[in-house]
């Protein structure tokens, strides 16, 4: 008793002795120190310390039971949530305080997670414990990859076609698909002549793509399906669906001839118009009056029209004289006029006919861009043999000699100054023309010249190019400002974009 009294006399105030080892501790309901309490109770009991996670090596996705496969980067929030769901049933009696990844070699097929849990033990005492759970990654092929290996991988295909020479509309469509991430559900993307095919594992994903195309570009679609197999016992049918989408055969910078009925319905426009943009509608401008109109897909298929010229028929002219038209009065019932263009009368001469005196007179909507001596690209109506139903019936006096399309700049300088780039979809290319690179450069130049077109496209800064600023190189060509560019995301390690924030010591 005397010894016990001496021990208690040395114990600090508001402290008590552990009932097992006699160490002074703050009072708690169990009257035991933490070390002794842990020898009596293990709050992590029943929680597995090693768990199996299934991973598909072909598509790099993890299995989220029962049948969902999700894309997760190493040490990401998505992978953390997936691993915790594996432990959810065994952790119903404890409280999770913290969870974080411990670093492991990416090729070790091991994921280690440090968990901090709390639980109420003897007489209401709360015990906190930190332990490590190891997740073993096992390979398992998902159902989608099984179909790919079995050569029966697609259930639906969307065939997008456009019967035109130039692919400007397809390049624009590609950027919209990338921006809205509609290509993520595709099993394969195959580029063929006059179009592109999207293969899907379900009919719902294909229907979603068709709905997106109908809202994005003027087009029409048809659907069909083919019976693959039929189980008479369960009365189940296996179909392969095909969606055919036809985009209007009109691209930017095409010269078209409208039917008299359509031209009248658009505000008494001239029949010969220039397509200045193709988005969800066809944007037309009359080069003689600056009158503009939009033609949607339904209107086009009721009154179809085609481009009069091939883009390879563009000829280079030099401006000999220009006169801006200030006061242009439109007739009764006329529609809207463009505020971004200026009407002008110009005299031009072909650069290939500089040794002659042959000049052409025309009206143009490029009066705000052209000066005497500038080079401009256009189509020569006077020396062309065009077979078009509506153009052949027009009064010859109403057919212009030349239609100017756009101002010409030095392409090599524009490529040198271009410090931005676009993303591209990964796709199979078969039988592609060597003309694709020239057409792609034309599309990039259209983006530089048309600010409204750039609003729907993600433009990324090209870190590999150093912009060259020089007075001698500046020929007035339009360019993309730095404020419109995005920084491209680069994954420098195997942990993924969000992994660094989730790492713990």
TrEMBL record:
Q: Where is the 60S ribosomal export protein NMD3 OB-fold domain?
A: 314-407
Q: Name one GO molecular function term.
A: ribosomal large subunit binding
Principal location listed in the UniProt entry: cytoplasm
Please give the biological process terms from Gene Ontology that the record holds: protein transport; ribosomal large subunit export from nucleus
- Where the record annotates domain Nmd3 N-terminal, the positions are 18-247
- InterPro entries attached to this UniProt entry: Nmd3 (IPR039768), Nmd3_N (IPR007064), NMD_SH3 (IPR048899), OB_NMD3 (IPR048898)
Alphabetical UniProt keywords: Cytoplasm, Nucleus, Protein transport, Transport
Residue span, 60S ribosomal export protein NMD3 SH3 domain? 250-296
Q: Where in the cell is it found?
A: Cytoplasm; Nucleus
Cellular component (GO) terms are: cytoplasm; nucleus
Function per UniProt = Acts as an adapter for the XPO1/CRM1-mediated export of the 60S ribosomal subunit.
* Entry's family note: Belongs to the NMD3 family.
Question: Which PANTHER family does this UniProt record tie to the protein?
Answer: 60S RIBOSOMAL EXPORT PROTEIN NMD3, NONSENSE-MEDIATED MRNA DECAY PROTEIN 3
Q: What is this protein called?
A: 60S ribosomal export protein NMD3
- Report the source organism: Oreochromis niloticus (Nile tilapia)
């Amino acid at each position: 008793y005397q010894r016990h009294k001496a021990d208690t006399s040395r114990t600090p105030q508001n402290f008590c002795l552990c009932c097992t080892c006699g160490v002074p501790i703050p009072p708690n309901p169990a009257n035991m120190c933490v070390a002794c309490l842990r020898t009596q109770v293990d709050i992590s009991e029943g929680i597995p310390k090693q768990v199996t996670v299934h991973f598909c090596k072909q598509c790099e996705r993890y299995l989220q039971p029962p049948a969902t496969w999700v894309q997760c980067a190493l040490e990401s929030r998505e992978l953390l949530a997936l691993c915790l769901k594996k432990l959810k049933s065994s952790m119903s009696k404890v409280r999770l305080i913290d969870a974080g990844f411990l670093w492991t070699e990416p090729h070790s097929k091991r994921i280690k997670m440090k968990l901090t849990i709390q639980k109420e033990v003897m007489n209401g005492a709360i015990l906190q414990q930190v332990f490590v759970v190891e997740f073993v990654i096992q390979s398992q092929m998902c159902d989608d990859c099984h179909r790919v290996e079995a050569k029966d991988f697609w259930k639906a295909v969307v065939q997008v076609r456009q019967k035109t020479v130039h692919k400007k509309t397809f390049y624009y469509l590609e950027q919209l698909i990338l921006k809205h991430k509609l290509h993520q559900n595709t099993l394969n993307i195959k580029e063929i002549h006059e179009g592109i095919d999207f293969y899907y594992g379900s009919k719902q994903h294909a229907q979603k793509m068709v709905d997106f195309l109908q809202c994005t570009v003027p087009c029409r679609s048809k659907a069909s399906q083919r019976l693959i197999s039929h189980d008479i016992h369960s009365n189940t049918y296996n179909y392969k669906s095909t969606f055919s989408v036809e985009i209007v055969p009109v691209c930017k910078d095409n010269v078209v001839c409208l039917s008299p009925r359509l031209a009248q319905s658009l505000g008494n426009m001239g029949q010969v118009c220039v397509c200045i943009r193709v988005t969800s509608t066809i944007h037309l401008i009359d080069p003689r009056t600056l009158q503009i109109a939009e033609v949607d897909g339904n209107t086009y298929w009721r009154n179809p029209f085609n481009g009069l010229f091939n883009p390879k028929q563009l000829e280079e002219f030099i401006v000999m004289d220009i006169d801006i038209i200030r006061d242009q009065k439109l007739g009764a019932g006329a529609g809207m006029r463009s505020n971004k263009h200026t009407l002008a009368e110009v005299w031009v001469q072909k650069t290939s006919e500089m040794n002659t005196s042959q000049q052409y007179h025309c009206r143009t909507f490029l009066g705000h861009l052209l000066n005497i001596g500038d080079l401009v690209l256009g189509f020569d109506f006077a020396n062309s043999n065009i077979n078009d139903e509506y153009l052949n019936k027009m009064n010859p006096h109403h057919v212009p000699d030349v239609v100017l399309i756009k101002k010409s700049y030095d392409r090599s300088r524009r490529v040198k100054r271009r410090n931005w780039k676009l993303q591209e979809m990964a796709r199979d290319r078969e039988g592609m023309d060597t003309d694709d690179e020239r057409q792609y450069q034309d599309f990039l130049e259209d983006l530089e010249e048309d600010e409204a077109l750039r609003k729907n496209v993600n433009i990324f800064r090209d870190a590999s190019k150093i912009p060259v600023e020089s007075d001698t190189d500046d020929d007035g060509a339009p360019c993309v400002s730095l404020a419109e560019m995005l920084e491209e995301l680069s994954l420098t390690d195997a942990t993924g974009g969000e992994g660094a924030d989730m790492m713990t010591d």
